[in-house]
Amino acid sequence: MDLAITYRCNLNCAHCYNGRERNYPELPTSEWKKILDRLWQIGIPHVVFTGGEPTLRDDLPDLVGYADQLGMVTGINTNGTRLGNRNFLDSLIQAGLDHVQITLESHDPSIHEAMVQRQGAWQKTIAGIKNVVDSKLYMMTNTTLLSNNANQLEETLDFLSELKVPTVGLNALIYSGKGNLYKPVCGRKSCLPPCLNLPSKRQIKTSSA
Ligand code: SF4
């Protein structure tokens, strides 16, 4: 089960699905712990802390640790910018975190930063990806496939492979929040053919290597 523990975020994606104001009131730690108790009681074995940006909550290690103590599998969905801080990542690992999903929109800093609307964000997210790859956590990246980045998908996948990212995911636009108004959607004409042709193209490269 995904738990949106905050609506705050340190990025400002033009396609953000977050439908509430950034300062929308958040539940305190004690309330989230009651929710975790209840979820465990009714048989939910696995929670993913998301947002907004879940790493902006100072009590994230506490919440991860509480869920872990109950016996749950725990993960976070994050933009990765705070995971470049190894001490912070270690605090989550020590609390019992099992897996991390980090969103990287492109191998190209200018495309990524145009999409997340924050200068300097790419380098921070890459630092986070490298730290997580070097840890014992299960990890994957996620890329929102839009017309901004779809034509460079092959280069982005190669880049992630060079970083030794074990698993990648692609998702479409989520039609909520700013996503409802977003125009450069990946449509069949503009984006899908290069993506759909990728597997056969890569197979040809591999078999002729
Ligand atoms: S899509 Fe995620 S990373 Fe981007 S602004 Fe929204 S909450 Fe933040």
Can you walk through the features of this model?
It is a single chain. The protein has eight helices and six strands. Strand 5, helix 6 (153-162) and strand 6 form a beta-alpha-beta unit. The N and C termini lie far apart (43 Å). It has a single domain (2-208), classed as Aldolase class I (TIM Barrel, Alpha-Beta Barrel). The chain is an alpha/beta fold. Helix 2 (60-70) runs parallel beside helix 3. Helices cover 39% and strands 14% of the residues. The protein has a six-stranded parallel β-sheet, covered by helices on one side. The structure holds iron/sulfur cluster. Iron/sulfur cluster (SF4) is lined by residues 9, 11-13, 16-18, 51-53, 79, 116. Iron/sulfur cluster is lined by residues 9, 11-13, 16-18, 51-53, 79, 116.
CATH architectural label? Alpha-Beta Barrel
Number of E-state strands:
6
Strand order of the largest sheet: 1-2-3-4-5-6
What structural category do the secondary elements indicate? alpha/beta
At the fold tier of CATH, the topology name is TIM Barrel
Helix-strand sequence: EHEHEHEHHEHEHH
